[in-house]
C-alpha cells in the first residue's frame, strides 16, 4: 500500500486522534496540512513530528464552526498544495462547549455541536472536492454509539450532530461515487489521548477499568495510532470499493450486549 506523494488535510490534527492520523499518513509518504483552532504550538509540534517521519506539510488555523474560516482554510491548502487527495474531518469543540443534558443544553451549545460537525463537513467537502482528483478519499470521525444511544444524557448535542454527520456521509458517498471519491466515517471506541483525557480522573479510571476487564474484548482502550492505521487503510487504492459506511474501530466493544454481564459474554 503506497500513499507516497498524496496530500491531506486533517482537521483537529494538532492533538489526539487527529495527530495520530496525521503521523500515520506521514509515515506512508503523505504531505499533511495540520489544522488547529487555538493551540498553535501543538500544531507546530505535530508538523515537526511529520518532518521527522520523512514527510512535510503546513499548519492552518480555523474555527470549523464558521463557514468563512473553513473556506479560507481550504483556500490556503489549495494555494500551498495545489490539490488535495485526502480530507479527514475530525475537529470538535472542547467538551464544555456542548456537554449538557437535553433539558439544560442551550441553543448556543447545540449550535456549537452541529456547526462543528455536520455543517462543517458540508462546507468543507464542497470546498475540497473542487480541487480533488477522481479517486480521492474523504473521511469523517464520528462516535456511532453516541449517535444511536441516549444514556449519556449530556452527549445529546454531539450525539445528534454525529448522527447528522453520518447521514451526510452517505449522501456525499452517492453524490461523489461516479468520480470514484469514497466517503466513509470511522467510529473509534474510547481512545487514549482524546476526549477521555478531559474527563475527571475518577471517570477516566472507571472507563479504562471497565474496558480492560472485558467491555472491549481486546482488553484495552484504543490509541490514536490505531485510528491512524484504519484511516491509512481506507485511503489506500485497495479500499476504493467501500463507500458510505460507518467503520467501527473499537477492539470489538460495539459487539458487546449491554443487557448481559460481560462475565457471561466472555465465557
CATH architecture: 3-Layer(aba) Sandwich
Number of domains: 1
Helix content: 40-55%
| Strand composition percent | 15-25%
CATH fold naming:
Rossmann fold
- Largest sheet geometry: 7 strands, parallel
What is the CATH top level name?
Alpha Beta
Write the CATH homologous superfamily. NAD(P)-binding Rossmann-like Domain
Shape annotation:
globular
- Secondary-structure element series: EHEHEHEHEHHEHHEH
Q: In total, how many beta strands?
A: 7
* Spatial strand order of the main sheet: 3-2-1-4-5-6-7
Uncertain runs are none
Layout of strands and helices, then pairs:
Elements: E1 7-10, H1 16-27, E2 31-36, H2 40-52, E3 57-61, H3 67-81, E4 84-89, H4 107-128, E5 132-141, H5 144-148, H6 156-176, E6 182-188, H7 201-215, H8 224-235, E7 246-249, H9 262-265
Parallel strand pairs: 1-2, 1-4, 2-3, 4-5, 5-6, 6-7
Helix pairs in contact: 1-2, 1-8, 3-4, 4-6
Which key phrases capture this entry?
Rossmann fold; 7-stranded parallel β-sheet; 267 residues; 7 strands; alpha/beta
Question: Would you write up a description of this structure?
Answer:
With 267 residues, the chain is α/β, with parallel strands linked by helices. It has one domain: Rossmann fold (3-Layer(aba) Sandwich), CATH 3.40.50. Strands 3-2-1-4-5-6-7 form a seven-stranded parallel beta sheet, sandwiched between helices. The N and C termini lie far apart (38 Å). The model has no long low-confidence stretch (mean pLDDT 95).
Short description:
By secondary structure, this protein is an alpha/beta fold. It has one domain: NAD(P)-binding Rossmann-like Domain (Rossmann fold), CATH 3.40.50.
Amino acid at each position: 500500500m503506497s500513499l507516497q506523494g498524496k496530500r491531506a488535510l486533517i482537521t483537529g490534527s494538532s492533538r489526539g486522534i487527529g495527530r495520530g492520523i496525521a503521523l500515520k499518513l506521514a509515515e506512508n509518504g503523505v504531505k499533511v496540512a495540520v489544522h488547529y483552532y487555538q493551540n498553535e504550538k501543538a500544531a507546530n509540534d505535530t508538523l515537526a513530528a511529520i518532518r521527522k517521519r520523512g514527510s512535510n506539510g503546513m499548519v492552518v488555523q480555523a474555527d470549523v464552526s464558521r463557514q468563512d474560516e473553513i473556506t479560507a482554510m481550504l483556500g490556503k491548502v489549495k494555494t500551498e498544495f495545489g490539490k488535495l487527495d485526502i480530507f479527514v474531518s475530525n475537529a470538535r469543540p472542547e467538551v464544555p462547549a456542548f456537554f449538557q443534558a437535553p433539558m439544560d443544553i442551550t441553543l448556543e451549545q447545540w449550535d456549537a455541536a452541529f456547526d462543528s460537525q455536520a455543517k462543517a463537513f458540508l462546507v468543507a467537502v464542497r470546498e475540497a472536492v473542487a480541487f480533488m482528483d477522481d479517486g480521492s478519499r474523504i473521511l469523517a470521525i464520528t462516535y456511532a454509539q453516541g449517535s444511536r444511544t441516549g444514556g449519556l444524557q449530556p452527549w445529546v448535542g454531539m450525539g445528534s450532530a454525529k448522527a447528522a454527520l453520518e447521514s451526510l456521509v452517505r449522501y456525499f458517498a452517492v453524490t461523489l461515487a461516479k468520480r470514484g471519491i469514497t466517503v466513509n466515517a470511522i467510529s473509534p471506541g474510547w481512545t487514549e489521548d482524546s476526549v477521555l483525557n478531559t474527563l475527571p480522573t475518577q471517570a477516566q479510571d472507571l472507563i479504562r477499568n471497565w474496558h480492560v476487564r472485558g467491555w472491549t474484548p481486546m482488553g484495552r482502550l484504543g490509541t490514536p495510532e490505531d485510528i491512524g492505521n484504519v484511516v491509512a487503510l481506507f485511503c489506500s487504492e485497495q479500499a476504493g470499493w467501500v463507500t458510505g459506511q460507518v467503520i467501527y474501530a473499537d477492539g470489538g466493544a460495539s459487539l458487546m450486549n449491554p443487557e448481559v454481564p460481560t462475565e457471561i459474554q466472555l465465557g
